[in-house]
């Protein structure tokens, strides 16, 4: 009898612990939005000189969360596993220059587009590459499993490029471009425009872009309620001027789509 009581107490203790852990997780989810980001994706989301996460999407997400009555927590993730992080429940949203594509629509729910972008080709200012056809036989870099990769795959020039090198983030790709290990990098126009304000004599952008695109926020499939509430917050921010102020802060003008 004593043994049975001891076993029952042990089972009860384990159940209590699991319940407490589960309750803690669900409680945090109730009032906090966990947002997955690439923390090297300036100016959308990145770390400043004090290692603080800042950026256009960061400010936009904070403002949206406030309207929703939520707290917000930014979780840097490996961009290659972003959809897995979302589907597993480790994050609630993908919000960091996340391009809307047909393939991604099969995996996540999207808000309406809130910002236009394009995939462009950047080279060094002293490069003889001036048009897409000049990439033939060259070494090109891009962020792995990004819309830059999709845009390049869809262009006929891809088959003529000598080597396509994939990087964990755009910063590493641009560093290799500066050092001469790459001839060009395919990158978001929003991102390279920001870097060129810091290093305007280092890079140049080809006139021909690879693909126009739009950014949206990714929500887990099946979570229509969160999508609805988030979209309402974004719409309200457009209506009351909040989104415009954030855009002007980061881009010098209102680029937010309505």
Automatic annotation (TrEMBL):
Pfam entry (one): SBP_bac_3
Keyword flag Ribosomal protein: no
Domain Solute-binding protein family 3/N-terminal: 32-254
Cellular component GO terms, alphabetical: cell envelope; membrane
Domain named Ionotropic glutamate receptor C-terminal: residues: 32-253
Main location: other
Signal peptide from the UniProt entry: 1-20
Compartments (UniProt record): Cell envelope
GO MF annotations, alphabetized: ligand-gated monoatomic ion channel activity
Classification via InterPro entries: Iontro_rcpt_C, SBP_3_CS, Solute-binding_3/MltF_N
Keyword Metal-binding listed: no
Keywords assigned: Lipoprotein, Palmitate, Signal
PANTHER family, sorted: ABC TRANSPORTER EXTRACELLULAR-BINDING PROTEIN YCKB-RELATED, MEMBRANE-BOUND LYTIC MUREIN TRANSGLYCOSYLASE F
Family: Belongs to the bacterial solute-binding protein 3 family.
Protein name: Amino acid ABC transporter substrate-binding protein (PAAT family)
């Amino acid at each position: 009898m004593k043994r049975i009581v001891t076993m029952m107490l042990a089972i009860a203790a384990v159940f209590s612990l699991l319940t407490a852990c589960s309750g803690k997780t669900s409680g945090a989810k109730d009032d906090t939005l966990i947002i997955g980001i690439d923390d090297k994706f300036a100016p959308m989301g990145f770390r400043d000189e004090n290692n603080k996460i800042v950026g256009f999407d960061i400010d936009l997400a904070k403002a949206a969360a406030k309207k929703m009555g939520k707290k917000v927590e930014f979780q840097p993730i490996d961009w290659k596993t972003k959809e897995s992080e979302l589907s597993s429940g480790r994050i609630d949203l993908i919000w960091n220059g996340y391009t809307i594509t047909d393939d991604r629509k099969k995996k996540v729910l999207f808000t309406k587009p809130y910002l236009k972008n394009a995939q462009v080709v950047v080279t060094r200012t002293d490069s003889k590459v001036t048009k897409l056809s000049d990439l033939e036989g060259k070494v090109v870099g891009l962020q792995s499993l990004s819309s830059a990769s999709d845009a390049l795959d869809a262009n006929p020039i891809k088959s003529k490029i000598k080597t396509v090198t994939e990087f964990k983030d755009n910063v590493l790709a641009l560093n290799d471009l500066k050092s001469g290990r790459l001839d060009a990098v395919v990158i978001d126009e929003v991102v390279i425009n920001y870097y060129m304000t810091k290093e305007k004599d280092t890079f140049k952008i080809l006139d021909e872009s690879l693909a126009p695109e739009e950014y949206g926020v990714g929500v887990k499939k099946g979570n229509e309620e969160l999508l609805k509430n988030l979209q309402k917050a974004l719409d309200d921010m457009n209506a009351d001027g909040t989104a415009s102020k954030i855009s002007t802060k980061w881009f010098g003008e209102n680029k937010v789509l309505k």
